[in-house]
UniProtKB/TrEMBL annotation:
InterPro entries: Ankyrin_rpt-contain_sf, DEATH-like_dom_sf, Death_dom, P-loop_NTPase, ROC. Its cofactor is Mg(2+). Residues 184-416 form the Roc domain. This is Serine/threonine-protein kinase roco5. Residues 792-863, 901-973 form the Death domain.
Amino acid sequence: MATGKKPAPDNLSPEILQAVEKGDVARFNKCVKKGANVLGLDKNGWNILHHIGYHNKYAFYRSIVLEHTQITTLIHQTANDGSTPLMMSCKPIPPDIRLIDAFVRLGGDLLYRDSHGRSCTDVTSDRNTRNYLSWRRLHTTGLPDAVLEEQSTPKNDVIMQFLRSFTYMDDTFADRFEKELKKKKEKSANIRIIFLGHEGVGKTTLCHWLIGQKVKDGGPGSTDTMEVNLSHLMINKATGEVVFLPEHDVGRTLCHRRLRDMVGNLTLSDMPPQRENNCFIGDMAYVNIFDFGGESLFTNFQHIFLNDDAVFILVFSLHNCLDELAIVDRVYFWLKFIASYSHGKYKPPVILVGTHMDKIPPADRKNTLKFVIDIIRNNPEIDEIYQNHIIEFFHIGNKTQTDSEREIIWKAILKSAPYQAQWGQLLPGSWISLEHDIMRLRNSSTRVMTFKELKERATKFGVVDVEGFLRYMHTSRTILSFPSDDEPGQPIPLDMKIILDPAWMIRAFRLIVTALKFHLQNLEKDDPLLIEYQRTRRLKREFIDRIWRMHDVKEGFLSHSETLLYFIERSELIVKPVPTGIPTDVDTYIVPSLLQPADPDLVRQYLKDKYAKTSSTLCIQFQDKFVPEAVCDKFLASLIYRFKVDDATSLCIQRGIACFLLTGDWKMIAHCRDRMIKITLFSENPSPQPFTNGKQLRGIVTDLLDSTLRRNDQLHLVYKAYLHHNFEVLQEDNVLEPSKVKSMLHSDRTTKLSKADYDFWFTMQPRPKTAGKGANASSGNTSGVDLTREPSLKQMSHIAKHIGDGYVLFFLELGMKNNTITQVRQTNAALDFRSQITRTLIAWRNSRSQSDVTLSAIVDAMNATHMDSAAMMSELSPNSQEAEKIKKSVCDLCLPERRLREVEVDIVARSIGTMYVVFFIHLDLEDEIIREAELNHHGEARNMKMHLLHTWLQRNGKEASVHRIMMASRECDIIGWKELADKLRPK
C-alpha cells in the first residue's frame, strides 16, 4: 500500500540526480560519501527510486541497492501527484521490465492508483509491459531468476518469450521452471518459414525450388490449403549451409542431437566435434516450411499457424501485378496482417519476393521493379510497414533461377531468423530433447497421443514439468493441445488428446470445407450430401465421415474423427450450434467463415416490420487499424456455440452478423466488421419485461472475445468498449465513451443516448426475488413443493426442460462462471441439450454449499432471466399433469408387467440415443455411476449404455421392469418410443 509519509526534509542534490540520470555508480557513491541524503526528495516529491524508474536504470539500481539497502524502504512512498516508484518505472518507452519486476519484489503495489485514478497499466503505452503487468498480478512469485539473468539488455525479448509461452501457467510454475533450468539449459533454434501471397503467383514453385525439389513442367498446380515440410531441413547457423534430410535420416539426426543434449554440463566447445551430413550438429537450426494456398478461402485458417514466431516470405507476381490489382491488394492485406503482430524493428521479419521476372522483357525490368515498389509504398500506412518489416526484396524468374540466387535467399532467411519471437528462447535442455523426440514420432506418421503417453516419454528425458513443455509446444504450433487456459493449476486429464501434426488437422479440415473444384475430386457434382452442404454451409456428420473415409487408409482421419472434430471446433473453425430437439442436430456444424456475406438491410427491414423495441448498442472497438476477419469469424463462432440462433427471422445467420434468442422477450443482434463488434438487443413485444442482465451480457461478450484472442495468439489486439444507437457497423460511426453517456441525463438528436443507456450495459439492475419459503405466495407457487430444499437428480432433469435459450444468463444468475458453463457443455458435447443442462445443474450443485442449492435460488434465476418458473414448478408438483400424461401414454401401450430380459438390453441401448443421461437418471442411477461408465467405455456408446442397463438390472432385480423402461423413454421423449414398445411386446 502506497503512503504519503515523507522522510527527512533534506532534498536530493543535483549531483546525485545527475548520477542517476547517467547511470554513473561511481559518481553516485562519491556523492554519498560527501554526505548526500539518498532518502531525500526533489521538488516534485520524487525519491531516488522514482528517478531510477523514470530513467530506466536497472543495472544502476542493481549496483547501488546492495550497498545502500535503505533505499528499498522508499518503494511505497508517493510523489506530490500520488505516483509511486513502481508507476514511474512503467513510464519509459519501452520500460525495462527487469526493473519493474524488481520494484514489485520490493513490495510495489500493482493495484495502486494515483491521485488521477491511474494505475501502472494506465501510465504505460508499451504493449509488452501491459501484458507483463497483467501476468504479474496473477503470479506473485515473479519471473524466474534464470530468465532475468538471461535478459542482459533492456529489450525485454527474453522475458516476453517466457510470457508468450507460459502466461497461463499457475503461480508455482516459475519455481518449477527454475529447477528444470538448473539441470541443463539451452536455447531453441527453429526457423518457421511461411509462404504467403495471392493465388497463382508461384509460391509453391518457389518453395519447391528453395528446398531442392524438382518442379514438374507446367508448375505444381494450385495448392489445396497448405503444404508443409516439417523438420526435414537443417541450416548451419554459422555458415548458412542448408542440409536437405531424407525422411529416413531425420530420426538419426535427432538421435545425435539428443545425445549431445544428455551429455550433461559440458559445453559444445568441450565436446568432440560431431558431424551429421557434414555439419556440426550444435550449429544447426531446424527448418519448418508452410506453403499456404492463395485463394481467399484458405485465409480463414492460416491464423492457426501465423504468429510473430516466423520468417514470412511474401510472394507476388511481377509479370501481372499491374494488371491484376487483386495481387497487390493481397500484398497489402498480408503486410497489414503481419504488422498487427509488430513489436519492434523487423519483428516479425518479412522477405518480399517478386516472381515471373523472366516473363518481363529485359529492357522493361528496371522500370517495372521501380514502378511496382512505388505502387506498394505509395500507401503511407503500407510504406511504414515496409520500412519496419521488410528485410530483403528479391526478384526472380520462375524458370531461370540459379544456385547463387537460392543461396542468397537462404542467407536472408538466416539473417531474419533472430527476429522470430521465440528464437533463442531459454529452455531446459531436456525439453529440447523431448521436442526432437516428438518430431521423430511425427515424421513416423504418429498423429495423436494422449497426455499420459507424453508423460511416459517425458520421463525418459528427465522432463518433470510436462504441462509447461506442452504449453511451449502448443504456443509454437509444433503440436496442438487445449489444456484449459481459464482454470490454471487444474490437472490435465491423462486421457487428453494431443495432435502431433497440426498440418494433418488442417488437411482434414480442408477436405470438408474446400473449394468446390477440390470437392469434385472426391464426390460427384450431383451428390445429395454435397448439394446440401453447398446450399446450407452446414456440415452434417454423415458428410464429414463420407469425405474422411475416402482418405482413411493414408491419413487415418476417420479413425481419429472424434479427436479431429474436437480440435477443429476448439480452433473455432467450425461450431456446433445450441442443439434443438432434433437428435441429428447434435452432429451438425456451422462454418462461420463460409456463411453468406452479411446483409444488414435484412436486419433493418426486419426491425422496421416488427416495430421492434431496441436497446442501445454496445460497441467493442479495436484500437489497431487492422483486425483479421478471422477474429470476427471466431467471435461469431463463440456466440453461436452459447446462444441459440433465431431461425424464425429472415436473416437467420450470415458471415459477420447473426440474430440470437436471449430470453422470452429479448433477442440479440451481433454485427462484426473490420475492427468493430456491435451488440444490440431488441424485442418484438412493444411492452417487454425489462432486461436486467445487460452488465452480465457485456461480461460474457468480453470474456468470449478475450478467450478467442488468447487461443489464437492475438492478445496484442487491444479493444475498448463504447456506446452507440445503431446496430450496424458503419465506417462513419461516432461512438461515445461510456463515461460521457453516464453524465447525459437526457438524450439528444445527435447521440440518441442517455444515462439509462449507460446503466443498461454498465450497471447491475435490480432483480425480482422470491426469498425462500415465504415466496410461495408472492411468486404464485401453488405446487406444494418446498422451495428451500435441494432439488433431486430427477427434479434437475425436469428443471432442465424449462431452461431454454437464456441458459448462459440463467447459470450466471446462479453464480457460475461463464468459463465453467462452457466447459461443462464442451465435456458433454455428444449429449442432447437437456442432458447438457442437467449436467450443468449438477456442476452448480457440486460447486456450492448445500444451503445455497435450493429450488428457491433456481426460481429466482429463472425469474431474473424471464423464464417460466411457474410451468417448471407445476411439473415438479406431486400432481403434475405432465407426469400423469406420460403415465397414461405408457399404460395405453398395454405392456405386461415383467422384468426386462437380458436379450432385450441391446434393443433398448440402441434406442436411447443422445439423451441417455436423463434416461438413466429416471431409472434412479446416480450421475457418478453414469460418468464412470462413460469413462470406462469411452468411444463405445452402445457398450456403455448396455453396461448401465446391466447395472440397473442387477440393482433392481424383479423391479427392473419393461414398464419402467418405457416410463423413462417417454420422459426423455425418445424418438421411436412406440417402436421400442413394439419390440418389447411379446410376439
